[in-house]
Amino acid sequence: MMMKSIRMAGFALVLSAASYAEGQEAWLPSLITQTPQEGFELAVTLARRGVSTTQPDRDVLGAGRPIYSHDPDSLIAASQVIAIHFGTIAAANDYWRDRADEE
Amino acid sequence: MMMKSIRMAGFALVLSAASYAEGQEAWLPSLITQTPQEGFELAVTLARRGVSTTQPDRDVLGAGRPIYSHDPDSLIAASQVIAIHFGTIAAANDYWRDRADEE
Amino acid sequence: MMMKSIRMAGFALVLSAASYAEGQEAWLPSLITQTPQEGFELAVTLARRGVSTTQPDRDVLGAGRPIYSHDPDSLIAASQVIAIHFGTIAAANDYWRDRADEE
Amino acid sequence: MMMKSIRMAGFALVLSAASYAEGQEAWLPSLITQTPQEGFELAVTLARRGVSTTQPDRDVLGAGRPIYSHDPDSLIAASQVIAIHFGTIAAANDYWRDRADEE
Amino acid sequence: MMMKSIRMAGFALVLSAASYAEGQEAWLPSLITQTPQEGFELAVTLARRGVSTTQPDRDVLGAGRPIYSHDPDSLIAASQVIAIHFGTIAAANDYWRDRADEE
Amino acid sequence: MMMKSIRMAGFALVLSAASYAEGQEAWLPSLITQTPQEGFELAVTLARRGVSTTQPDRDVLGAGRPIYSHDPDSLIAASQVIAIHFGTIAAANDYWRDRADEE
Q1: How far apart are CA E64 and CA E96, in angstroms?
Q2: Low-confidence ranges of chain E (pLDDT < 50)
Q3: Cα→Cα distances F95→C52, E7, F40, Å
Q4: What is the mean pLDDT of chain E?
Q5: Which pLDDT tens digit goes with each residue over C35-45?
Q6: CA separation for the pair F59, B87 (Å, rounded)
Q7: Does this model's pTM top 0.80?
Q8: How confident is the model at residue A22 (pLDDT cuts 50, 70, 90)?
Q9: What are the tens digits of pLDDT across the range B41-50?
Q10: What one-character DSSP code corresponds to residue A95?
Q11: Nearest to F66 by CA among F18, F23, F22
């Protein structure tokens, strides 16, 4: 259920104003996902959350408008944060090893 | 209890002057948290503490006024520090695996 | 099967428009690979996916044309993201230890 | 005992001239600390030692005067080095799990 | 055998045109090495491969001529990628612990 | 014995011309050290080796004269590479836990 909403959350670097307003609510109940791909999407969510946590001012973030970086270096740096979180999530899910044969 | 105060600590990059003055007291009694989300918030706290430890001069830090970075690259870099700490905290909590079914 | 398509995916920093359009489909069913080399190629795929996830606007990404960076620092940074993902994938495959004697 | 002196060492980015002169002596007998907070302080010490090891010229380092960076990016980078060392120290102490209930 | 060729591969940041042309062949059959030093050399190989994978255009890479960076920061960044790969390879080899007494 | 020579190797960012000339010889027989401090010194050695491996041209490196960086950011970046290697070496030595009580 939670994973579903994450998968539909779009791809902006920061969360939308709406999802930020919901920031006080529970947004990370578990690190366990059904598939590696959902784990990757959760890693993207955590990377975004780290950005919006540091700069919660919506005016600076563009009143909820996503910051789409055009700088390749920024994109690579964001990819690195995702990679670190994905490593954590993969370990949490024991690397989805029990699912390796199913697919 | 401790987690609660962390959750209400706001989102500035550095601790407020008040919390810095309390810096000599115990501020990190444990890495164990109830939920992954509290673990993420603790990771944010550790990232901030690393910044204020390196530059404790309150005048430079703006006399306690939070340094809100407007540079996307800085925000991504801060997100990366959070990611590293979150990996440590997640391991400390055995990835909250025993809570995965509760939610 | 999946590994094969990854191996033929070419070497651009971002996925082609075609593969991005397929982005809603399953693209990461497993972290398990037959060899370390396939694991490295999967790490490259994850690094690219992290870039295209952050900036999905095809116009910015050049309408699918790969972003070939000419900046050595960018290339090293991309290599670092690959290294982090490779560490995760290697752990998932128990470092392909059971294959060490075969070759 | 060692931990005590570390805790009083102040917060400069590099060690003072005095402590550097003592650099030939034993300064890291153990990674084990009593609390996570002492572990964090030890991580700060290791991050500083990495800086002063690379540039031991006291004239460049300001004859022992601490280099207080005013650049937010430098502060975040220093926080990242601390985060990496803290991960190592936390693992060494098995994340202080046996102390989680005491506090 | 493979390790030998790696040890003689020289020290350029990217693979030569010749070795790149061989890129479709198996180049990473195993992460297991005889010594920590060979493991370090393999880490250098993986770091280079990450660079040449991202930018396979031989014209950009100088038609196989190695990119020797003169920028200290680039050299340190490259050293960091090597460090990450070395950590993976060291774990794969169980840190060569069983060889510690032999030498 | 090896550790001793490492401890006396000085603190330059890159190896001296002399030690580089010895680069073809065995320089890393083991990751096991007697103390955490020797482990840290070995991490410094590995960080330097990563730099000199990427740029072996002695003329660029100053004919063996150490590159002392005056840029705080470079010093912090070098400290980060050391931190990554120290994490690997600490794990190899099981964090020197069996020595924690001796000192």
Answers
A1: 34
A2: 1-23, 63-66, 68, 103
A3: 39, 30, 12
A4: 72
A5: 999 999 999 99
A6: 42
A7: no
A8: very low
A9: 999 999 999 9
A10: G
A11: F18
Query: What does R_g of chain C's alpha carbons equal in angstroms?
Result: 14
Interface test with A, best of B45, B51, B76, B82 (most A CBs within 10 A): B76
pLDDT at A73: 85
Evaluated on CA atoms E91, E92, E98, F1, the torsion sign reads: negative
- Burial group, residue D30, by CB count within 10 angstroms (0-12, 13-18, 19+): buried
* pLDDT for C12 beyond 60: no
- Selection from D83, A85, C89, D54 nearest residue E79 by Cα: D54
Is the pLDDT assigned to residue C75 strictly greater than 70? yes
Among the residue ranges B42-46, C54-58, E39-43, F62-66, the one predicted with the least confidence is F62-66
Ranges A21-30, C3-12, D8-17, F32-41: which has the least confidence: C3-12
Q: Mean per-residue pLDDT for F77-97? A: 97
Closest-CA distance, A103 to chain B, in angstroms, reads: 23
How many CB pairs lie under 8 A apart between chains E and F? Answer: 101
CB within 8 A of C62, min separation 6: which ones? none
The CA distance from F69 to F12, in Å, is: 9
Q: How far apart are CA B95 and CA E20, in angstroms?
A: 41
Q: Check if the beta carbon of residue F40 is closer than 8 Å to that of residue F90.
A: no
The mean pLDDT value of chain F amounts to: 72
Please provide the average confidence, as pLDDT, over all residues in chain A: 72
SS3 letters across chain F: CHHHHHHCCCCCCCCCHHHHHHHHCCCCCCCCCCCHHHHHHHHHHHHHHHHHHHCCCCCCCCCCCCCCCCCHHHHHHHHHHHHHHHHHHHHHCHHHHHHCCCC
Q: Is the reported ipTM for this assembly greater than 0.85?
A: no
What totals of helices (H) and strands (E) does chain D contain, helices first? 4, 0
For chain B, list residues whose CB is within 8 angstroms of any CB belonging to chain D: 13, 26-32, 46-47, 49-51, 53-57, 60, 67, 69, 71, 73-74, 77-78, 80-81, 84-85, 87-88, 91-92
- Tell me what pLDDT residue A24 has: 62
Q: Is F13 exposed, middle or buried (0-12, 13-18, 19+ CB in 10 A)?
A: buried
The tokens for F4 are: 């001793």
The partner residue sitting opposite E51, judged by closest CB among C68, C75, C86, is C75
Provide the CA C10 distance to its chain's centre, in angstroms: 10
The tokens describing B93, both together, are: 């909590």
Of the candidates A78, A95, A103, the beta carbon closest to that of C54 is on: A78
Distance separating alpha carbons of residues D30 and E80, to the nearest angstrom: 25
Taking the CA atoms of C76, C50, A37 and A83 in sequence, report the sign of the dihedral they define. positive
Nearest 5 degrees, angle CA C78-CA C81-CA C87?
Answer: 140
Give residue B71's pLDDT.
78
